[in-house]
Design goal:
Elements: H1 2-29, H2 35-40, H3 46-55, H4 62-74, H5 89-124, H6 129-143, H7 146-160, H8 182-215, H9 219-226, H10 231-262, H11 264-269, H12 275-284, H13 288-316, H14 318-322
Protein name: ABC transporter permease
Family: Belongs to the binding-protein-dependent transport system permease family.
Main location: membrane
């Protein structure tokens, strides 16, 4: 068991090192990404550019630059932005991370509960009007772009109906820290949570419904029914557990990617300065230290999410334990 855990940690470390090296090499292969020229500014003389290149170590071999940058990012943690010289990478990512984590975690709770509810109810009422209605609603949720739905929600809650009894409690756009103002934190994020979760409720509900319908055709379900088990027990203990495998796989990947910065559109629409927005601004400016910091943060959550998915497999599917 200990060996398996150590092996998994080694794989995670290897993946993160590979990702960091790939991002580093892609950055220097991108046209116009010469950091010395960007630091020197427009119309700088060749002598000025060369002096900056030597001062920042850009004239050294790429492997040496990579090792120095990784040391400053993870060991000394004094790596600063190439664009904003006063901005240190680690504190900037640490400041943006709670915003993204709060947004994605709350939305994840909603889309897991909503996806399971939609999938189970639709499967139990297969080929009925309720089933068709839920699948239509799920398809509508999948089809609505997040930025469009977010703007509509802002129009309703911040402008058109803000003074009504329904949305007068909604605060202005932005983020309030959980530890300093828990109620304000909840109120500022409840609308973004529903906006981000709408897409995934539709996707997860449709996937779970299809898996449940397929599971009900299997022999082990017929055996459970033949034993006289109640429909609820057949659903929860047998059909749902096996059908959750693809559900859990999707959740692990989606949660890791969203926490890593893919919730950018939601952050922009609702004025949340999270990791996605930080990454986007760094990419616009070709700011390698900030890009590396946010990419390493994202890769950490992706590999951790995949490791946790493997653990959940063992818990919900006995066949995995036996293999």
């Amino acid at each position: 068991m200990i060996f398996a855990v150590l092996q998994r940690l080694g794989q995670m470390l290897f993946v993160m090192i590979g990702i960091s090296a790939l991002v580093f090499l892609i950055f220097f292969a991108t046209p116009g990404s010469d950091p010395a020229a960007r630091l020197a500014g427009r119309n700088a003389s060749p002598e000025t550019v060369e002096a900056i290149r030597k001062d920042f170590g850009f004239d050294r071999p790429l492997p040496v630059q990579y090792v120095i940058m990784m040391n400053r990012l993870f060991v000394t943690q004094d790596l600063t932005s190439f664009v904003n010289r006063g901005m240190r990478v680690v504190p900037a990512v640490a400041q943006a991370a709670p915003v993204t984590l709060s947004l994605v975690a709350g939305a994840a709770v909603l889309w897991v509960i909503g996806g399971i509810f939609v999938g189970v109810v639709a499967a139990l009422s297969r080929d009925t009007l309720l089933d068709r209605g839920l699948m239509v609603l799920a398809l509508i949720g999948v089809s609505m772009p997040v930025y469009w739905l977010g703007e509509v929600m802002n129009l309703m809650t911040q402008s058109r109906f803000h003074d009504t009894v329904f949305f007068s409690w909604v605060p202005s756009l932005g983020y309030k820290p959980l530890l300093t103002d828990p109620w304000g934190w909840f109120k500022t994020l409840i609308i973004p949570w529903f906006t981000l979760a709408a897409l995934y409720i539709g996707i997860y509900g449709r996937v779970l419904r299809a898996n449940l319908v397929e599971a009900y055709q299997e022999d082990f379900i017929r055996t459970a029914r033949a034993k006289g088990l109640s429909p609820t027990r057949v659903m929860v203990r047998h059909a749902l557990r096996t059908s959750l495998i693809p559900f859990v796989t999707m959740f692990g990947l989606d949660f890791g990617v969203l926490v890593g910065g893919s919730a950018l559109l939601t952050e922009v629409v609702f004025g949340l300065n999270g990791v996605g927005r930080l990454t986007y601004q760094a990419l616009l400016n070709l700011d390698l230290p900030m890009v590396l910091g946010t990419v390493m943060y994202a890769s950490f959550f992706v590999v951790v999410a995949n490791a946790l998915v493997d653990v959940v497999y063992v818990l919900i599917d006995p066949r995995v334990r036996e293999s």
